[in-house]
Amino acid sequence: MFEFLSNHMRDAQGRLDSTRGLLCGLGAGVAEAVVVVCPMETIKVKFIHDQTSPNPKYRGFFHGVREIVREQGVKGTYQGLTATVLKQGSNQAIRFFVMTSLRNWYTGDNPNKPMNPLITGVFGAIAGAASVFGNTPLDVIKTRMQGLEAHKYRNTWDCGLQILRKEGLKAFYKGTVPRLGRVCLDVAIVFIIYDEVVKLLNKVWKTD
């Protein structure tokens, strides 16, 4: 989705500036949230909460999904959609903004300048770290909205207000350190693999 959007927003020299990179990342994040992330994250969070409860009711993955759909309908797999769209949209917007900025700085006036995988990995890790510090509060709200106790919140805004009133600002940054380690590696690896796959494909046929 990012490549689809960015191919329509590059200038005559094939460059993508940071602002357009941010907008393309935002679009990619929103699409990702609606099509993939929200249902998968909702199911994952429900399973984690169920398995840590005194009397787990889901016997396995398929049984759990079947029970969620039977009790709550398909809507049950789309809890916290607004929070997920906000989280994932801002997530990818930050990552691609930082990555595009760093790429443009490194390549200078030559957008076709090759990048060493190590450099790509370092830039990816920096982009990942920026996204963690930038949107961990939204991730906390999203997780609460998708859990088994989501019924306590009227909507995304109410969830955020309740967390602030009852637990304070620090609650919005719970899990930052472990998430930082995972996300930095995750984003670094994704960008390295993507760049190397594109290089390989370019040997077979030209890709934009």
Which terms summarize this structure?
72% helix; transmembrane; MCP_dom_sf; TXTP-like; mainly alpha; 208 residues
Number of extended strands: 0
**Which runs of at least 5 residues are low in confidence (pLDDT < 50)?**
none
Please compute the radius of gyration using only Cα atoms.
19 Å
Order of helices and strands: HHHHHHH
Mean pLDDT: 88
User: Which class do the helix and strand fractions yield?
Assistant: mainly alpha
> Helix share of residues?
over 70%
Q: How large a portion of the residues is in β-strands, by DSSP E?
A: under 5%
What sort of overall outline do the alpha carbons produce when their principal axes are compared?
A: elongated
DSSP helix count? 7
Largest sheet: none
C-alpha end-to-end distance: 13 Å
Pfam family, one: Mito_carr
InterPro entries: MCP_dom_sf, MCP_transmembrane, TXTP-like
Membrane topology: Multi-pass membrane protein
Family: Belongs to the mitochondrial carrier (TC 2.A.29) family.
What is the topological layout?
Elements: H1 2-7, H2 18-51, H3 61-72, H4 81-107, H5 117-146, H6 156-167, H7 176-204
Helix pairs in contact: 2-4, 4-5, 5-6, 5-7
Describe the protein.
This is Tricarboxylate transport protein, mitochondrial. This protein has about 210 residues and is mainly α. Helix content is about 70%, strand content about 0%. It has helices at about 1-5, 20-50, 60-70, 80-105, 115-145, 155-165, 175-205. Helix 4 runs antiparallel to helix 5 (about 115-145) and helix 5 packs across helix 7. The longest helix is centred in the first third of the chain and has 34 residues, at about 20-50. The mean pLDDT is about 90.
